[in-house]
Amino acid sequence: MSILSTRKAEKIDSLAEGGTSLAMDALRRTFRSPVAILGLVIVGLFVILAIISPFIAPKDPYRPYPELKAELTPSNIPGPMPGFLLGSDQNGYDFFSRLLVGAQQTLFVGVFATLIGVAVGMIIGGLAGAFGGWVDSVLMRLTDIMLSIPSLLLAISIAALLPGSQWTVIIAVAMIGVPVFARLLRGAMIAQRSSDHVLAATALGVKRKTIVFRHMLPNSIGPVIVQATLTLATAIIDAAALSFLGLGDSDWRRAEWGLMLGNAQELLSVKPSLAFFPAIAIIIVALGFTLLGESMRESLDPKNRR
Amino acid sequence: MALLDVRDLSVVFKRKGTRPFTAVDGVSFSVEPGQTVGLVGESGSGKSVTSLAIMGLLPKRGAEIGGSVTFSDTELLTLSDKQLRDRRGRDLGMVFQDPLSSLNPVITIGLQITEVLERHRGMTRKEARVEAAELLDRVGLPDPQRRIDEYPHQLSGGMRQRVLIAIALACRPKLLIADEPTTALDVTIQAQILSLLSELVSETDTALIMITHDLGVVAGLCDDVNVMYGGRIVERAQRHDLFERSRHPYTHGLLQSIPRLNAPRGEPLTPIRGSVSDNIEWEQGCAFAPRCPNATDVCWSEPPELKADDGRMLRCHNPVAIGDAVTEGAL
Ligand SMILES: Nc1ncnc2c1ncn2[C@@H]1O[C@H](COP(=O)(O)OP(=O)(O)OP(=O)(O)O)[C@@H](O)[C@H]1O
Ligand code: SF4
Ligand SMILES: [Mg+2]
Fold first, then answer.
1. pTM reported for the whole predicted model
2. Locate the ABC transporter domain: which residues (chain B) (predicted)?
């Protein structure tokens, strides 16, 4: 390193002072970009909506209303009426309330599908990265097999094998993420294994367990968090796709956007908004998570640091 | 009885699809308790590989290690991984070149010191924290009570290297290996770190292996100097003898390529011509022959042996004549 660049580093150091951890630093960098802020706003509104929607929904999303039922025929689904902002759905339920509450169910599916994918993937990837050798080879062949199956096909196969329930959707979608998270964590851990600070810790006689859990894992987690954010977007879309294919939740009453979209597909000519609104909601939310994830990825990339 | 005795150490890297590469070739030297020994040579001469071999830090697969490394009567090369881990950090410490990347970025520097104290000195977290603050104070880190909870990226390069030295010396090892500890630092900081190192090792009677490509560092610090070229030691002498007159053409060239304040005006610096990539195989002759001003036919056909000569060890067919070898005042 030349004298000049060392000088520069010293100066930047003093600027960084007062900051806390590297993660905080990365967060600060992330939210300098307007795209990240847009993503955060979308995700934030979605999460708030998911939490408060049962309390602010004007009507009960889980029961038919006689006012709506009265006008409901196979070829006519009532549109907006006083008290029912978006009219009825195909069963005489309040569509607007169902759309609001749908945020909660959709977030639930997305979050749990992602969390299970992250957890299982991290166990596999963590073991492979920590032990290397044959453990690594076996586990990585396993993920290769999972990756070789197109993701939706994998989810469809699992969903088809299990009874149709919400957890089936969650597990099927989670499995798509498992090999991705496994590879990601394993790759990051392998890079950590040959890093200078792990070598330095080894030179100090630090125990293997400590090296893995304190030195390798925390430094490998960044890309996993980014990928999890991006996966939330695809998980919501994949769950919707399963529902659309009739492989999703068998409880048709549940207000979940994917399910609502799936159940609306035969009614496109009768009342297109029944499909349109859930679809738009899914797209916006998926976009929010993607924007957020991509900006985080950018700011965590060492090449873009500072 | 030497503290560390390296005998005939060799390291051959073997990787599928490439030729075996001998990075270290029959290196022998020893370090007495409290002594400071220099290991000098250009980039790629095998200094770091030698130190990693001593510490048992070379990758298990792909590196074939020969010879012996004895540390206070224990052969290190045959120790199990667990036995080595118990000794590293406690008996043998190491300071690496790049202070930023040698520290874990996601945990505080305090934790990186206490972890070693807890591991080797059986301290509780509380005791270790007190000791850590003292250590940081001793290596001259300003405001250690506050700094102890900071992350590596909040410190300057010089402060980071002080922290690394504090960590390496936390368990009072008998031997410290410093691999180019100042190369990544600002020149003014370099001098501070070097004097800190020499102060600490003499205070605690720690033996030090100083790895550097900078003869200036050696001049101020080392008792004995080993000059390496192409994985072999080519000249070994006491510091005073080496700087009074360097007999090996490579050492001589190194000294002549250092700018001198008292040089006659206009005298050009004479860098060693060529680069390490010109080397020939040691099996064939002298690896330095393509770059050596003294090379003769025998150099190209017969590998020189390391022999005692003029109060030092020399590996050369045609050493620099004693009259020409004077480099007094080079530093
Ligand atoms: N893990 C490895 N696998 C293969 N070759 C290696 C490995 N580590 C080092 N080498 C090779 O061994 C030779 C000696 O390397 P070493 O790092 O010891 O040089 P050095 O004297 O420390 O140089 P520098 O001043 O650049 O640090 C180099 O040519 C290097 O490419
Ligand atoms: S052996 Fe020959 S080539 Fe090698 S250093 Fe001596 S004189 Fe030069
Ligand atoms: Mg080196």
1. 0.84
2. 6-255
